[in-house]
Amino acid sequence: MRPETHRPGLVQHTLGWPLDNRTGGGSFLYHYGANLVSVGFVVHLNYANPYLSPYGEFQRFKTHPAIRGTFEGGKRIAYGARAHDARAAGSRSRSSPFPAACWSAAPRAS
After folding, report:
1. What is the number of structural domains in the chain?
2. Among 74, 78, 83, 88, whose Cα sits 20 to 30 Å from the Cα of 98?
C-alpha cells in the first residue's frame, strides 16, 4: 500500500454494510510491516439469500469511501478463502476433527 496511507498497528473492525440487516458478518483490516495491510471479510454461513455472493460483497466492501483509499495504488500479494465455525470452543463436538485452535470464541448468530 502507499506509505502515506499506511498506519502501522492500526486495527479496524466493521459490522454490517454491505450486508443487509438479516445477514451477519463484517470485516477486519490490520496494518503491519512495511506498508502491508491484511484484510478479511466475514459472512455468516447461515445467510438466507440464495443469491448472496460473499466474494461479491467483499468487492463491494472495498468500494466504501472509508476503505477505498487503503487499496488505491496497492498490489495484492496473496489471497485465500476459508470457512470456519464461529461457535465457542466449548460447544463443538468432541468428535470434531479440528483442533481447538481452529475455533473462534464469537457467539453463534441465531
Report:
1. 2
2. 78
Can you give the pLDDT of all 110 residues of the chain as single tens digits? Answer: 888 888 999 999 999 899 999 999 999 999 999 899 999 998 988 889 999 999 999 999 999 998 999 988 888 888 887 776 666 555 555 554 544 433 333 334 44
Q: Are residues 71 and 28 in the same domain?
A: yes
Long-range contacts of 31-38 (CB under 8 A, 24+ apart): 31/6, 31/7, 32/8, 33/8, 35/1, 35/2, 35/3, 35/6, 36/1, 36/6, 36/77, 37/1, 37/6, 37/70, 37/74
Distance between CA atoms of residues 47 and 64, nearest Å: 22
Type of residue at 18: P
The domain that holds 53 is classified in CATH as 3.30.9.90
Identity of the residue numbered 25: G
| Domain coverage including residue 95 | 83-110
Q: Do residues 44 and 67 share a domain?
A: yes
